[in-house]
Each structure stands twice: as C-alpha cells, then as structure tokens.
Design brief:
The complex is a heterodimer. By secondary structure, chain A is mainly α. Chain A has one domain. In chain A, 75% of the residues lie in helices and 0% in strands. Chain B has a domain at 1-77 and 168-173 and 195-247: Rossmann fold (3-Layer(aba) Sandwich). Chain B has helices at residues 40-47, 70-76, 93-104, 120-130, 145-157, 175-192, 203-209, 227-232, 234-239; strands spanning 2-11, 14-24, 29-33, 55-60, 63-64, 78-81, 163-167, 195-199, 212-217, 220-225. In chain B, the strands form two sheets. Chain B has a six-stranded mixed beta sheet, sandwiched between helices. In chain B, strands 2-1-4-5 form a four-stranded antiparallel beta sheet, covered by helices on one side. In chain B, helix 3 (93-104) crosses helix 4 and helix 3 (93-104) packs parallel to helix 5 (145-157). Classes of the chains: A mainly alpha, B alpha/beta.
Amino acid sequence: MKWKYVTPLLLLAALAAAPQFLPRFHTYILAIVLLTGLLATSLNLAIGFGGIYQFHHAVFYGVGAYGTALVLTRTQLPAPVGLMAGPVAAAALSLVMGVICVRLSKLYFGMLQISLGSLVWATVYRWYSFTGGDNGIPGVPVPGWIASSESAYYYTLAVTTLSMLALYRIVGSPFGKVLQGIRDNPVRSDAIGIDVKAHKLTALVIAGFFGGVAGSLFVVIDTSVFPDMMFWTYSLEVLIMCLLGGMYTFFGPLVGSSILVLLRTYVSIHIPYWHLCLGIILTLVIVFLPEGVLGYAARRFRPKEGRLA
Amino acid sequence: MLKVESVVKSFGGFKAVNGARLHVEKGEIVAVIGPNGAGKTTLFNLITGHLLPDSGRIRFKGRGIEGIAPHILCRKGISRSFQVVNIFPRLSVFENVQIAVLARERKTFRIFSPVRNMAAEEVHEILRNVGLYGERDVEGDLLSHGDQKVLEIAVALGGKPELLILDEPTAGMGPKETERCIRLIKKLSDESGLTILFCEHDIGLVFEIADRIMVMVRGGTVIQGRSEEVRRNREVQEAYLGEAGEC
C-alpha cells in the first residue's frame, strides 16, 4: 500500500532539485514538460475517462494563456487575479461550447468543437487591437515573485502538482467512476438514473479549467502568448500525447507529453523534419502499443490491476 | 401499478406496437410472450422511456409517463435490464452495481470524495443476493454470458426499483443458467415483494413463474390473464403455442 507513493515522491523530489543542477534552458524545458503534462491530463479526463471526443482542447489552453496575459498587460488588477482569470475564462468558454456541443455524439461532437474552437482562434488571430493578432502578446509583465526562471519553475511545479492531485481525486470519486461508466455505456448509464449530458458537461468544464491552468502557467514560464497555442493542429498534438502515453491510465498522458516535448526539443535541433518523426512515432504506437506506453507497462508488469496505474 | 392502454408505435410504415394493452399490479410477476417480432422489446422501450409512443397512454402509479427521459423514470422507480448484454465492460462487477447505487443516492456529482468503499455494504448485499459476490472484483467483460445477464439484473436492482423490467433475461443462456436465472426472478419476487415484468421465449418457464401472462402478436394484445386462461385461449394456441416448435 505505502509503496505506491514511493515513485511519485521520488519523482517530485527529483523535480524539486532539478533547477539546482540544470542549466536555465533545461529548467525552462522541464517546466514546459510539466505544464504540457497537465494539459494532456486535463484533456484525458474528457477523452480517456469520459469518452468525449474533445478534439480541440488547445482552445482552452490558449484562452487560459490569453486570459492571464491580457489581465496582466491591460489592467491594473493584482497579479493573482490575472493568474486565475485565464483558467476561469477557459472554464466559462468550455461551458458555453459544451452546452452547444454536448447533445451531439462522438465524431459530430468533435467536428462541431473544432469549428467553434477555430472561430475562437480566428478571432484571436485577427483582433490586432485587443489580442495583438498574429504577433501575440510578447513580454507579459509577470509579477516579481515568479519572474526569475527558477521561481517560475517552482511555481509551475507547485501548481501542476496540486492540479494533478485534484484531477487524480476527481478520477477516483463517484463522479469519476460514473464518467467511466458513461464512456463504456451511455445507454445503460441513462437507464440507471444518470443524467448523461449533465455529467459530460461537468467533465468538459473541469477539463477546460485545468487546460486553462496549463495555459496560465505557460504565460508565467514564457512571458508571451501567441495564437498558434490554440490552433487546431496543436490540439491534435495533445491528443497524440494521450494516445502515446495511454488513455486508460491516469499518468499516461503525462508520460506521453514528456516524451513528445523532449523529442520535439532535442530532435528538432538535429533534424528539421519534426512532424515526420511525430508521424512515425504515432504509427509505431498505434501498431505496437495500442494502449500506450504506460498502458502497455501496466498490462505487462501488473496484469491484474493497473487500470489507474 | 403499471397500466398501458392502446399504445401505438410505428417505424416508417411498420406498426411495431399496435394497440397493446398491459396491466401490472403491485407485487406480481407478469410475463409478456409472443413470437419474434411481436413488438415485446419495443413495448418495453416505450415503457422505460427509450421510445416515445405515437398514441396511447402509459401510466405508472396513476401518472402518465410517456416521453419522460429514462434517467428520470429510473428515479421514479422503474429499473430495467436489456435483451442484449448491456453492462459496463471495463468496470468490475462491484463497480457495475456501485454506479447504479450511487446514481440512485444522487451522489454522482461528488467530485472529491474517494469512491472506493462507497455504498459497499448495499452493493455486497445485492451481489450476494444474485450470487455474484465471489466474482465482485472481476471485470464485467470477463464474466461468462450467463453471469453477465445476471449482472444486468444486479445493476437494475442497484436502483432499488419498485418495478423491475427484464427484457428476455435468459436470452442466449444454457438450460442450467436459465434455471438459475428463473429461480433468481422468483426469489426476488418472493423475498422483496418486487413487481416484475419480463418477456421470455421459453413458454414452459413462463407458465411456471408468472402470476399473469400477456400474449402479444403483431404489436397487439391477444389476451392477458392467468396462465390457465391463456393456455385455454384458442387464438393463443393458433397464433403462438401452435408454432411453439419453431422456438
């Protein structure tokens, strides 16, 4: 029982110590790994545990980032308000889009979400006077206490850890269990008295919120935002992270995003064709590891349990 | 308790249910029999809110329930099982029933409390009752077909229904499993006074356990009555019992 806490605690200790040994660039990359992991895990609540085809999750990441960046650059409000504004805006958008999309099932849901999300992207991309258009917003004034690269990293580590804990509890709650029931069998869920749409909508809002948290963290780490963050191809990349790591495990998406972010960073230094590599990796995963890296490991080493590895 | 009056439902030009009548009193076991395609499943889907009738009345405890969504009907006391196995395949047997209990207790929006041991006692009770306690940690997918159909019933029981509707509970079962399932239905009725409405192909079993039988042919009700009455009815003999050989 106690042993299962050892790995996460060791990992946390290593992550906490990392900036003391790593050069600045690598600390930055590690922070990106963390917040991208949170982004993928939040998507996985909807797609892996809820079976909802959330095809345009990056919109909530982008809105989270823009929400924080806009409040920090354009208003005099205290910084914590700005840091919260992003996630709240993302959750609100998720609610609005969810209400429109949730009555559709499967692929239709996904297609409508891509359309609505692209509308948000187009607005951000064109609205030069407010969002900075395709230039984005460079040099966001991040408050002093998280301005240094080291403090920004620790802030990211703390927020990511807390968010992951919250998501872990949600997955293990009655709500999380029912969500998995809805994923497996919506008709039966309905027949035992579960309001399927209301539960899906709640899952979407939670996923949107934590996607927004990841976006807000990106502003702290990078001090800039740009419209590509919420372009639909990035949604696809986040989706691939979930597939790669394992959609039916809690930590799979975190593993998948770590692999992808690190590969993208170090492979593109040597080879200019990053997307070619991505395609090859995806093909290999789908053919050889249909349950993802962590899904495979869980089956391999713990054949009996391991659903929530 | 349940009263269905001249209900009609057509798909395109085909009248699947055409003026069916059905009456279920509290505490009874009522069986619906009829040849393939007589409209039994459609009738059940109309009662449980999965389909909307074109015309006719369906009353549960005196109130019209046409067009009420299944999840609301379930809260009003109607639970059902399905003809084709319809469980949560990736969840354990325990979790399958647990979800139903949590849904009834309206605890499904709790997002931070751990679910692990919630409602465990009641779930164990139900599983012991249906004889699946030993398999409680097995994934639904891995059960035998017969056990899956029993799990179907267990999930429906999780909703603590007043009226339990079973759509061909023994479909696809071997003789041994069928007997076990029928005994379970009888036991549920005897011990908890549950009102049960079910449909079935095996006529012998139907006559054995049902208090009353409704015979359905081509979407309509031929007769509803005690088993002797039904057995004596000439129309039934011609329409259904006479062709029993094909079943």
